């Protein structure tokens, strides 16, 4: 049992290292997080189109898109390191000056996206609509507080 715990601990540490090491320059981190947010927004928008009636509801497509958004939800936040607040970015300085609030906001989005993913797995459009609205509110709150327009 101790060996298993040690192996899992080592695996977790080694998995975390690439997130910090992968960005040789600040602009690499900016590109990474922008790319992750772009892909998330595309798939989130597909669910939104179904939730708003702009696209026909397809439970399988909603589930597939929610799964992608859920998988990507944690990725961009590894790229908000010190020194990545200038350049081709709309990140506000508050990300770093109020890091606790930013972390809380990012975790709220991750949690809400997880609930959207669970709702999508039910195939129930009303549950998806409610979870989509809640997830959208977390996105808006972060944009309002931490993103330049």
UniProtKB/TrEMBL annotation:
Q: Which residues bind heme c?
A: 139, 142-143
Provide the organism lineage as a comma list: Bacteria, Pseudomonadati, Pseudomonadota, Betaproteobacteria, Burkholderiales
A Gene Ontology biological process in which this protein takes part is: electron transport chain
Q: Which GO terms describe its molecular function?
A: electron transfer activity; heme binding; iron ion binding
Which keywords annotate this record? Electron transport, Heme, Iron, Metal-binding, Signal, Transport
Against InterPro entries, the record matches this protein to: Cyt_c/b562 (IPR010980), Cyt_c_II (IPR002321), Cyt_c_prime (IPR012127), Cyt_c_prime_subgr (IPR015984)
| Superkingdom per UniProt | Bacteria
Q: Which residues form the signal peptide?
A: 1-21
Protein name as it appears in the record: Cytochrome c
Instruction: List cellular component terms (GO).
Output: periplasmic space
This protein's record includes keyword Cell inner membrane: no
One Pfam match, by short name? Cytochrom_C_2
Briefly state the modifications made to the protein after translation: Binds 1 heme group per subunit.
């Amino acid at each position: 049992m101790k060996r298993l715990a040690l192996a899992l601990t080592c695996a977790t540490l080694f998995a975390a290292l690439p997130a910090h090491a992968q960005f040789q320059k600040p602009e690499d981190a900016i590109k990474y997080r922008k790319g992750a947010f772009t892909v998330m927004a595309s798939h989130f928008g597909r669910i939104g189109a179904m939730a708003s009636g702009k696209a026909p509801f397809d439970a399988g497509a909603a589930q597939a898109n929610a799964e992608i958004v859920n998988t990507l939800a944690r990725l961009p936040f590894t790229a908000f390191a010190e020194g990545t607040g200038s350049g081709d970015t709309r990140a506000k300085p508050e990300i770093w000056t109020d890091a606790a609030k930013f972390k809380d906001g990012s975790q709220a989005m991750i949690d809400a996206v997880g609930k959207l993913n669970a709702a999508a797995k039910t195939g129930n459009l009303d549950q998806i609509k409610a979870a989509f609205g809640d997830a959208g509110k977390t996105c808006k709150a972060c944009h309002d507080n931490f993103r330049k327009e």
